[in-house]
Design goal:
CATH superfamily of the largest domain: Zn peptidases
Largest sheet: 6 strands, mixed
Distance between the termini: 35 Å
CATH class of the largest domain: Alpha Beta
CATH topology of the largest domain: Aminopeptidase
Order of helices and strands: HHEEEEEHHEHEEEHEEHHEEHHEEH
Structural class: alpha+beta
Strand content: 15-25%
Radius of gyration: 23 Å
Number of strands: 15
Length: 374
């Protein structure tokens, strides 16, 4: 299906690429590059260390001037739920609903941006507009750090970054950060009747889990609070626990995965320090799965004011889900979240974006272009 300047057709094209997180995405990235270069826009494909997926960075205008970044991820969560009424990778239109995996999170925003490319190119903006597409956001923002690290060689320091996660096109100023940790305990297998001849990996893991639960309670009851978030504290949870083969076999291996979501001003990895200390004491291995910082942008910052004007909505103080925006801010680029759709529709069967939402986002992008053209 060809790319199109009609945003709903562009969305249908993007949905058809099964860019599930952790899987190759080069066919989509190459197609986007062809679309951009066909409109005279140079771009860089930045292949990640995995070798089979890549980020893309393109500039409309003079990259030597400071401009604005439009950022979106092209990976989607798997679509194996039985509740899908048809192929999740074929966009369906039912009334105003555009149904398909990734339609809301977040190929809708990407479609609005790419469909606007011909018009943005014709505007020849004096203030450049950058398009930044990333991979594996759904695995903990694993792709975008490689692109952010390369940005000093790609463009002048940006004035700001709009991350188009679904917010109902309401600008969002802050979000929580996240860190995820895997714990792995190794024991010695044997018959359960002779525990003296083995070593129980689950037992080794227990004091670390107890420390995690204690830290979760401490963060809730004694840690700093920020009423912009729900809940207004940094949260910690044990998400998975696995180990053992049978009741009468001493478990040789056991593992757990833990995450923390940190309010603005808190460093997510530091909040897991008591868990790591307990793991070291118990001889349990630790492995970071992902980490990204919180976002906090002031309501009077120029980017906040600009995006409020572009979207027609006053900024929302905060959301509890995380995005790549915190990583841009950490790198010195002011960042804000603003995109079409509702996060409650994401990661669900029959995920959808409405046509009016998509068109409103497309118009917001064009208005940014008009302002940059000055």
């Amino acid at each position: 299906m060809p790319f199109s300047r009609r945003p709903e057709e562009m969305l249908a094209t993007l949905v058809a690429y099964e860019t599930v997180v952790g899987c190759p995405n080069l066919s989509l990235i190459d197609a986007v590059a062809d679309w951009l270069e066909g409109h005279g826009i140079s771009c860089r494909i930045l292949v990640g260390p995995e070798g089979n997926r890549a980020n893309l960075f393109a500039t409309i205008g003079d990259a030597a001037q400071s401009g604005y970044v439009l950022s979106g991820h092209v990976d989607v969560v798997p679509a194996g739920e039985p509740e899908w009424q048809a192929d999740p990778f074929t966009l369906r239109i039912q009334g105003d609903r555009l149904i398909g995996r990734g339609a809301c999170d977040m190929k809708g925003f990407v479609a609005a941006v790419l469909a606007a490319v011909p018009d943005l190119a014709d505007m020849a903006p004096a203030v450049p507009i950058h398009i930044a597409l990333s991979y594996d956001e759904e695995a903990g923002c694993k792709g975008v750090p490689h692109m952010i690290a390369a940005m000093p060689d790609l463009c002048a320091p940006p004035l700001g970054c709009i991350v188009g996660e679904p917010t109902g096109l309401v600008p969002v100023l802050a979000h929580k950060g996240k860190a995820a940790l895997r714990l792995q305990a190794t024991g010695v297998a044997g018959h359960s009747s002779r525990p003296d001849l083995g070593a129980n990996a689950i037992h080794a893991l227990l004091p670390v889990l107890v420390a995690a639960r204690a830290q979760a309670r401490a963060l809730e009851l004694e840690g700093p609070r920020d009423d912009r978030f729900a809940p207004p504290w940094s949260s910690l949870q044990i998400g998975t626990v696995a180990g053992g083969q049978a009741l009468n076999i001493i478990p040789e291996r056991a593992e757990a995965e833990i995450e923390v979501r940190a309010i603005a001003g808190a460093a997510p990895q530091e909040l897991l320090a008591p868990v790591i200390e307990a793991a070291e004491a118990a001889g349990v291995e630790t492995d970071w799965l992902s980490s990204y910082p919180p976002l906090a942008l002031g309501a009077t910052e120029p980017l906040s004011v600009l995006v409020a004007e572009l979207s027609g909505h006053a900024p929302l103080p905060a959301v509890s889900f995380g995005t790549e925006a915190g990583l841009f801010q950490q790198a010195g680029v002011p960042a804000i979240i603003c995109g079409p759709g509702d996060i409650a529709r994401a990661h669900r069967p029959e995920e959808y974006l409405t046509l009016p939402e998509l068109r409103a986002c497309h118009e917001m992008i064009l208005e940014l272009g008009r302002r940059c053209a000055g």
